[in-house]
Amino acid sequence: MSPGFRGRPRSAGPDLPPGQYLTPDFPVLSAGPTPRVELANWEFVLATEGGAEFRWTWDELMGLPQETPTVDIHCVTRWSKLGTTWQGVSLDTLLSGVDTAARYALVHSYGGYTTNLPLDDLRGGRAWVVHRYADAPLPAEHGGPARLLVPHLYLWKSAKWVRGIRLLVEDQPGFWETAGYHDYGDPWREQRYQGD
């Protein structure tokens, strides 16, 4: 290093993805009405590309090993919330023993919402089906009774009111992706819209 070279001074604030601002709140953004799903009727279905289905009722999901991730979340509308704590089941647990050659996943929600992800982004301790937030049951407006949580991508990929995942050999865009949002949605690369 050359004498006197110090580079840019570091910000005293938190490290946020480009274009994001910090919020202490948890804004509620939805494209339509909030589905109300009774726990007795809730079901999660994982379907392979070959048609095999794996199903969990609410009680069965609660009986699986639970994890409590604390993660930062980033919304495409530019807000970020740091240190959020959730409870749920890792997708690694749900995918364990599932025989698949799929490379993609299409997530389905109660209410009709869908979003697409590479299957690798649901593995390796990076995604959960969560049912608690801040040590309380997940409120309906934030996706309760359960939502997908994929915190390394923009929050629209963390589908609210999740009811299932279909594994796919070829990528298939979901609701926001067909409306022009980015297929992947990495906040650190500002992948907000197609072409970013």
From TrEMBL:
Q: Which residues form the Oxidoreductase molybdopterin-binding domain?
A: 32-176
What's a Pfam family this protein contains?
Oxidored_molyb
Please name the InterPro entries in this protein's record: OxRdtase_Mopterin-bd_dom, OxRdtase_Mopterin-bd_sf
Concerning SUPFAM superfamilies, the annotation shows: Oxidoreductase molybdopterin-binding domain
Q: Which region is the signal sequence?
A: none
| Matching PANTHER family | OXIDOREDUCTASE MOLYBDOPTERIN-BINDING DOMAIN-CONTAINING PROTEIN, PROTEIN-METHIONINE-SULFOXIDE REDUCTASE
Q: Quote the protein name from its UniProt record.
A: Sulfoxide reductase catalytic subunit YedY
List the top taxonomic levels of the source: Bacteria, Bacillati, Actinomycetota, Actinomycetes, Micromonosporales
